């Protein structure tokens, strides 16, 4: 029996996260099942990026528990290849000596282990991932010379190259024009339908998330809503984007 | 001209200078790729000058100056890295502080030393022509250390210098790589400066990588190109110094700079 199919891909229970003595997330509980495209929304400072970073094991919960692919985030090292992540802000130097295919190849490094260089198998996977995001013809272009939308596709290919089960994207449409935004969300929808990928994406574009995702998680330092996209009413959105009731305790 | 070149190669100290220069030049030029990509040029400047304090202390205590240089270089590199990471500072501020403190300590130790301390100035300006046969094994060891370490962690370093956040999330040990790079830099500087001087060692740690970056955007070419530029700069600089009878350190730096200028102009034209 395949037990992994019965377990949620992401299981967050009573998560509280604090930073510098302030409560950033309070008592958040939700689950994400396999093969779902889930949108994570909420106002700025509502705790979306903090939630992603606790899911990835970069930050640690103050209270509560998190399981990603059945493991606690601090034990995720053995499952690194099963999680693809596309960060909100890319800190790279636009003149960095890397072509699109070099950036995608970096996604294979953690699985290879120290001292081993990528071979023909990894290079084939790079072209496969570039194909998936429609960037094969730009494989040899320097990353800094691609448009914002094209760079985002390259970073999605980097996240996909290790054949992950879970893809986490932090505001992938930030800095991308409207056309690029639509194109990117269509790409994610296609990726989900063509594989067993589970996708969690943060976005500020509520209407885009509402019309293209299966489920929505809405945060404003506590869970405002978690359910099917059709259940996200204007009233819920208004509640989420209002000033938050949870008082930040002084520590 | 060919007579003079033949005469140059017949001299034992010149042959040692070529060998030592190629070894140190290749090591520094390989490291310079990551110094330039990770923007550690000012760190290497700071560490090389901080070693002055260690040399002065060693001279005062009557121990091997290389040990003092090594201890201060490693200590300063780790202090710069530690303060920058813990307080989330850019390195510039901590380098400025530790460099000044180390130089001040150097001057203090020099003041306490009675008699001549002329050997100390050799560490600041170095002398590639006075490499001893006993220095060569150290230089081979340094070259092996740098090349092996960088080769083993090559792909992780490349990912790390490209985007630290993404590399960290992907499971790359970025803190270990950062401090490892600083340590390697400190060891290279402290061993290299005795032979070629603090000024030349920092030039070798920056100019080859910066020059190669103007010429290629392919990392597979960038590393060997940087090493070739470093080695060629040392060889041409030494030959020029011998033929025109000028300081070899200055000649090497100026040859490297001319290469940098040429690459800058060529890349500007092609873009």
Question: Mind explaining what this structure looks like?
Answer:
The complex is a heterodimer of chains A (251) and B (271). In chain A, the strands form two sheets. In chain A, strands 5-6-7-3-8-9 form a six-stranded mixed sheet, with helices on both faces. In chain A, α2 (100-106) runs parallel beside α5 and α4 (120-132) crosses α5 (148-160). Chain A is 30% helix and 23% strand. Chain A has helices at 48-55, 100-106, 109-112, 120-132, 148-160, 178-194, 206-212, 234-240; strands at 10-19, 22-32, 37-41, 63-68, 83-86, 166-170, 198-202, 215-219, 223-228. Chain A has eight helices and nine strands. Chain A is α/β, with parallel strands linked by helices and 251 residues long. Mean pLDDT of chain A is 85; it is low at 247-251. Chain A has a domain at 3-89 and 164-240: P-loop containing nucleotide triphosphate hydrolases (Rossmann fold). Chain B is an all-alpha fold and 271 residues long. Chain B has a single domain (2-263), classed as ABC transporter involved in vitamin B12 uptake, BtuC (Orthogonal Bundle), CATH 1.10.3470.10. Chain B is built from twelve helices and no strands. In chain B, α2 crosses α10 (174-215), α4 (65-86) packs across α10 and α10 crosses α12 (248-270). The mean pLDDT of chain B is 87.
């Amino acid at each position: 029996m395949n037990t992994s199919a019965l377990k949620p891909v992401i299981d967050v229970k009573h998560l509280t996260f604090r930073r510098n003595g302030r409560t950033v997330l309070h008592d958040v509980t939700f689950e994400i099942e396999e093969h779902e495209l889930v949108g994570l929304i909420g106002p700025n400072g509502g705790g979306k990026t903090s939630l992603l970073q606790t899911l990835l094991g970069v930050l640690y919960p103050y209270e509560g528990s998190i399981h990603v692919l059945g493991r606690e985030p601090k034990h995720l090292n053995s499952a690194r290849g099963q999680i693809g992540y596309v960060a909100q802000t890319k800190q790279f130097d636009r003149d960095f000596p890397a072509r699109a295919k070099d950036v995608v190849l970096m996604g294979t490094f953690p699985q290879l282990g120290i001292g081993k260089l990528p071979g023909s198998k990894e290079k084939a996977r790079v072209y496969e991932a570039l194909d998936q995001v429609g960037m094969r013809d730009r494989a040899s272009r320097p990353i800094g010379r691609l448009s914002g939308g094209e760079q985002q596709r390259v970073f999605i290919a980097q996240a996909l190259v290790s054949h992950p089960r879970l893809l986490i994207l932090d505001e992938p449409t930030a800095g991308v024009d409207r056309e690029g935004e639509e194109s990117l969300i269509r790409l994610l929808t296609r990726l989900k339908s063509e594989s067993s990928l589970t996708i969690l994406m943060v976005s500020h574009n509520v209407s885009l998330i509402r019309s293209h995702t299966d489920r929505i998680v809405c945060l404003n330092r506590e869970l405002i809503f978690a359910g099917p996209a059709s259940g996200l009413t204007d009233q819920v959105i208004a509640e989420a984007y209002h000033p938050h009731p949870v008082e930040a305790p002084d520590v | 001209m060919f007579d003079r070149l033949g005469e140059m190669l017949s001299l034992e100290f010149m042959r040692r200078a070529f060998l030592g220069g190629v070894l140190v030049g290749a090591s520094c030029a390989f490291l310079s790729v990551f110094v330039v990509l990770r923007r550690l040029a000012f760190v290497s400047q700071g560490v090389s000058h901080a070693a002055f304090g260690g040399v002065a202390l060693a001279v005062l205590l009557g121990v091997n100056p290389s040990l003092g240089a090594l201890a201060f270089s490693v200590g300063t590199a780790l202090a710069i890295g530690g303060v920058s990471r813990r307080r989330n500072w850019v390195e510039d501020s901590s380098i400025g502080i530790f460099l000044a403190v180390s130089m001040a300590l150097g001057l203090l130790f020099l003041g306490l030393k009675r008699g001549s301390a002329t050997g100390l100035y050799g560490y600041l300006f170095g002398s590639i022509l006075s490499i001893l046969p006993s220095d060569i094994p150290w230089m081979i060891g340094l070259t092996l250390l740098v090349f092996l370490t960088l080769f083993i962690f090559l792909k992780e370093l490349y990912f790390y210098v490209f985007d630290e956040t993404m590399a960290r999330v992907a499971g790359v040990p970025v803190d270990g790589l950062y401090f490892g790079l600083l340590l390697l830099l400190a060891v290279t500087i402290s061993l290299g400066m005795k032979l070629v001087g603090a000024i030349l060692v920092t030039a070798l740690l920056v100019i080859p990588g910066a020059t190669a970056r103007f010429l290629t955007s392919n990392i597979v070419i960038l590393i060997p190109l940087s090493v070739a530029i470093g080695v060629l700069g040392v060889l041409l600089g030494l030959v020029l110094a011998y033929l025109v009878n000028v300081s070899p350190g200055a000649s090497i730096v100026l040859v490297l700079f001319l290469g940098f200028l040429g690459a800058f102009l060529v890349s500007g034209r092609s873009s």
